[in-house]
Amino acid sequence: MRRKIAVFGGTFNPIHHGHLRLALDLVQQVSFDQMRLVPCHIPMHREDPSVASRRRARMVELAIAGSPTLTLDTCELERGSASYSVDTLAQLRAEQGGEASISLIMGLDAYLGLMRWHRWEELLQLGHLVVVDRPGYQMPKSGPLADFDREHGAATKVLEQASHGFVVHLDIRALDISATEIRTLTAQGLSTRYLLPEAVRHYIAERGLYGAGDPVDKTY
Ligand code: ATP
User: Fold this and answer.
1) From residue 172, how far is each of 58, 67, 87, 106, 216 by CA, in Å?
2) Which one in 123, 176, 189, 216 has a CA-CA gap of 20 to 30 Å to 154?
3) N- to C-terminal Cα distance for the chain?
4) For a pocket test of ligand 1, which of 11, 108, 129, 169 has the largest count of ligand atoms closer than 8 A to its C-beta?
5) Is 85 in the pocket of ligand 1 (CB under 6 A)?
6) Lateral strand order in the sheet of 34-39
7) pTM here?
8) Structural class in CATH, domain 4-170
9) Which of 56, 134, 183, 200 to probe ligand 1 with, by most ligand atoms within 8 A of CB?
């Protein structure tokens, strides 16, 4: 059987239950052998995150502690340069060899901007793209992305059959949680409880990230 590896990249500023439940649902639905969470070091498609990459990586580590299926991959921090998914996929492909099925996971919001990504045309030569719906976002009916999607779209079983080259859309429950909302609530002194793991919430409070007051549990 072909080994199936998933790469789920993000700013994770901070990681939240939307990311975590999605990652777990994907592991269960697609039977990925590995699900690697890859915090970006310096994102190129958005403004510089307010929190350093090692802290965002630490929050991922805290969030997945004890999980048998999710792992932290710090390759983008170790590269130390601008973070491009194409480099991460190339590194993983070199490490895993040609047979492994490698999938880059992204929410639909991220996929909508795919054609602005660095060397995006090379992504399918290195792996598959697995796109998950996100509340509030819809695929365009026409245009270059719709054409690309029709040309490369395939059913889930292709992730077993091929090592790379296809786009798979998965209808997976997406929780309507965003890191932006968590940062905003924190800055306003409002509770973020139940939106993200407790260990991450405490890390944010202890270090005063996102303008957090201390202690976080006093009022809520
Ligand atoms: P921000 O609010 O700062 O933009 P975010 O919550 O979108 O952050 P990111 O770290 O930017 O989180 O997202 C990493 C990846 O996870 C992206 O591909 C994004 O589409 C996906 N994602 C994030 N939150 C969800 C969610 N609730 N449901 C589905 N996909 C999500």
Assistant:
1) 27, 20, 27, 12, 32
2) 176
3) 49
4) 11
5) no
6) 70-72, 34-39, 4-10, 101-107, 128-132, 167-170
7) 0.93
8) alpha beta
9) 134
Q: Which two tokens stand for residue 31?
A: 């039977």
- Residue 19: C-alpha distances to residues 39, 105, 134, 197 (Å): 12, 11, 11, 11
Binding site membership of 174 for ligand 1 (Cβ less than 6 Å):
yes
- The pick from 48, 109, 111 for probing ligand 1's pocket by mutation, whose C-beta has the most ligand atoms within 8 angstroms, reads 109
Distance CA 7, CA 26 (A): 11
Average pLDDT in the 2-30 region?
96
Q: What is the pLDDT of residues 146-190, one digit of tens each?
A: 999 999 999 999 999 999 999 999 988 889 999 999 999 999 999
Whether residue 192 has pLDDT greater than 70: yes
Cα atoms in the Cβ-side hemisphere of radius 13 Å centred on 123: 24
Distance CA 52, CA 110 (A): 21
How confident is the prediction for the chain on average, in pLDDT? Answer: 93
Q: Is 25 in the pocket of ligand 1 (CB under 6 A)?
A: no
C-alpha 218 to ligand 1 mean position (Å): 28
Task: Confirm or reject: Cβ of 12 under 6 Å from ligand 1.
Answer: yes
> For ligand 1, is residue 15 a contact (CB within 6 Å)?
no
Of the candidates 43, 136, 38, the residue with the CA atom closest to the CA atom of residue 84: 43
What does the block give as tokens for 140?
């365009």
Rounded to two decimals, the ipTM of the complex is: 0.95
